[in-house]
Amino acid sequence: MTEKHDQFAPADDVFEALESIPGLNDDRDERDAAREQMEREHAIGLATIRQVAALTQAEVARKMGVRQTSISRLEARPDMLLSTLKAYFDAVGAEATVTIRIGNVEHKVALDEIVGRA
User: Fold this and answer.
1) Strand locations in the chain, DSSP E?
2) Which of 14, 28, 66, 116 has its CA 20 to 30 A from that of 55?
3) Positions in the chain whose pLDDT score sits under 70
4) What is the pTM for the complete model shown?
5) Measured on CA atoms in the order 80, 109, 106, 94, is the torsion positive or negative?
6) pLDDT of residue 60
């Protein structure tokens, strides 16, 4: 028979119960450091890559044959086609490698190779 719960437990009680589990937070510092590193890595966007290449949006736009406003929108996008990303990297003089991981097996492929296959 399924037990019916009419009320939720207060969040403080839930957190207290979780914190009482032995060993649950033994690696908390490592997890926090890994999360912070991941956030730093994801913060490096296209604009940062362009700036490292010492190029303006207008210069990248000219190399790609588009308007500067297109570069501004591109740098703000959360996703894009791989061919668009390759064109941007070509314009700023960057190369990218895609890491494909299945279980414990990793395979690295140049973005140029992936886009060239399409």
Assistant:
1) 97-102, 105-110
2) 116
3) 1-8, 38-43, 117-118
4) 0.60
5) negative
6) 97
Please tell me the distance from the alpha carbon of residue 16 to that of residue 25, in angstroms, as a whole number.
13
Residues 12-33: pLDDT tens digits? 787 787 778 888 778 888 888 8
Which pair of tokens denotes residue 57? 């949006």
Say which residue the tokens 């790609």 belong to: 64
The Cα diameter of the chain in Å comes to 69
Q: How far apart (Å, rounded) are the C-alpha atoms in residues 113 and 92?
A: 18
Residue 96 tokens read as 């990218």
Report angle CA 87, 89, 91 to the nearest 5 degrees.
70
Q: How far apart are CA 28 and CA 110, in angstroms?
A: 35
**C-alpha span between 31 and 8 (Å, rounded):** 29
Contact 63/91 with Cβ under 8 angstroms? yes
* CA distance readout (Å), 6 to 3, 9, 13: 10, 10, 16
Length of the chain: 118
For residues 61 and 59, give the distance between their C-alpha atoms in angstroms, rounded to a whole number.
Answer: 5
